[in-house]
């Protein structure tokens, strides 16, 4: 690549897109990379402020921005996503299916630390829908050393930076607890909320039982659902430290392994997650899920429906970003709730 005066560029090959910006009308390339500059192009180039331009000269040690962008795309792209057309050294990744976005954060940091290239992504561990943008990549200079792009490949060996875990249809059991509901003293208002949240991901409740606060009864119902082949059991209510709230004990007595009872998230501090036989989630939901717009359940549910096994340390890390501000107009997931550092 070499710099030359625009008036002297006739016959030269343009090595980058030339963008024309007319506010409110257009922002697009008036000439594309590879265009052979003609005499009639000179006034147009001057009109967009290009008194000097870069034209191509062979250099085996360098890559053009668009060629380098293709390298970035390949190290980013997992299954169920595609790239946009390369333009001015930029490629965007677009989801091909609904699911949970996973990011190899170490690789993402490693590439962005190399300099002269960048990858900007939406938050990982959150839902994406088919057609939505996942990430944008760009090469900063017009040309970049081939050696630097080889280093980008090396630091991302072993798999792509981005992947999408698609949702898996699950048979879900719902256990509503509380003697006041069991004895019909009050109406069950918890179950409709859970069914509505499941419907957001195309899921339905396959079995539903209402139990009193008798922990032995709750345990028996959970076990019956698991024996009937439920892939996940959700228990609502009875999660506080009150003497009558026995759901945590009931879940423990099923033999399920408790991952966490309590999480640094508000609303949702009394949340419980366990796994039965190492793979089927048993969830205990605190009462806030019934009345708060968004809670820890919204952070965890999509990951469980995608078949992901969540570790205890991932709950500990939710403290930063774990406070929902209960905004008058909820914009979740386009807000800071559940989006901590790493």
From TrEMBL:
Keywords: Magnesium, Metal-binding, Molybdenum, Molybdenum cofactor biosynthesis, Transferase
EC number, as in UniProt: 2.10.1.1
Pathway noted in the entry: Cofactor biosynthesis; molybdopterin biosynthesis
A Pfam family recorded for this sequence: MoCF_biosynth
Gene Ontology, cellular component aspect: cytosol
UniProt keyword Kinase present: no
Domain MoaB/Mog: from-to ranges: 173-306
Cofactor or coenzyme needed: Mg(2+)
InterPro entries from the UniProt entry: MoaB/Mog-like_dom_sf, MoaB/Mog_dom, MoeA-like
First-tier enzyme category under EC: transferase
Gene3D superfamilies from the UniProt entry: MoaB/Mog-like domain, Molybdopterin biosynthesis moea protein, domain 2
Molecular function, one GO term: molybdopterin molybdotransferase activity
Catalysis performed (reactions): adenylyl-molybdopterin + molybdate = Mo-molybdopterin + AMP + H(+)
GO terms under biological process: Mo-molybdopterin cofactor biosynthetic process
Signal peptide per UniProt: none
Role this protein plays: Catalyzes the insertion of molybdate into adenylated molybdopterin with the concomitant release of AMP.
Stated family: Belongs to the MoeA family.
UniProt-listed PANTHER family: MOLYBDOPTERIN BIOSYNTHESIS PROTEIN (PTHR10192), MOLYBDOPTERIN MOLYBDENUMTRANSFERASE (PTHR10192:SF28)
Protein name, as recorded: Molybdopterin molybdenumtransferase
Species in which this protein is naturally found: Faecalimonas umbilicata
Lineage summary: Bacteria, Bacillati, Bacillota, Clostridia, Lachnospirales
């Amino acid at each position: 690549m070499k710099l030359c005066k625009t008036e002297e560029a006739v016959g030269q090959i343009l090595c980058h897109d030339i963008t024309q910006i007319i506010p409110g009308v257009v922002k697009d390339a008036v000439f594309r990379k590879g265009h052979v500059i003609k005499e009639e192009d000179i006034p147009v180039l001057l009109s967009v402020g290009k008194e000097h331009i870069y034209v191509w000269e062979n250099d085996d040690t360098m890559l053009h921005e668009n060629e380098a962008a293709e390298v970035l795309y390949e190290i980013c792209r997992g299954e169920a996503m595609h790239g946009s057309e390369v333009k001015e050294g930029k490629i965007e990744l677009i989801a091909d299916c609904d699911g949970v976005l996973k990011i190899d954060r170490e690789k993402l940091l490693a590439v962005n630390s190399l300099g002269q290239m960048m990858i900007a992504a939406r938050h990982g561990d959150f839902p994406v829908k088919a057609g939505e943008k996942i990430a944008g990549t760009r090469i900063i200079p017009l040309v970049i050393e081939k050696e630097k792009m080889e280093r980008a490949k090396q630091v991302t060996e072993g798999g792509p930076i981005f992947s999408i875990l698609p949702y898996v249809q699950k048979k879900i059991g719902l256990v509503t607890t509380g003697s006041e509901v069991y004895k019909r003293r009050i109406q069950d208002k918890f179950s409709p909320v859970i069914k509505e949240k499941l419907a957001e991901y195309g899921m339905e409740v396959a079995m539903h039982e209402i139990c009193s606060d008798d922990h032995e009864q709750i345990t028996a119902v959970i076990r019956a659902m698991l024996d009937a082949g439920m892939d996940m059991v959700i228990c609502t209510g009875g999660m506080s430290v009150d003497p009558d709230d026995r759901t945590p004990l009931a879940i423990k007595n099923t033999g399920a392994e408790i991952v966490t009872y309590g999480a640094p998230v508000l609303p949702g501090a009394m949340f419980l997650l366990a796994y039965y036989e190492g793979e089927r989630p048993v969830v205990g939901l605190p009462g806030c899920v019934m009345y708060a717009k968004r809670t820890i359940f919204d952070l965890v549910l999509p990951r469980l429906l995608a078949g992901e096994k969540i570790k205890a340390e991932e709950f500990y890390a939710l403290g930063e970003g774990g406070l929902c501000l209960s905004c008058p107009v909820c914009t979740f997931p386009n807000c800071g709730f559940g989006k901590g550092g790493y």
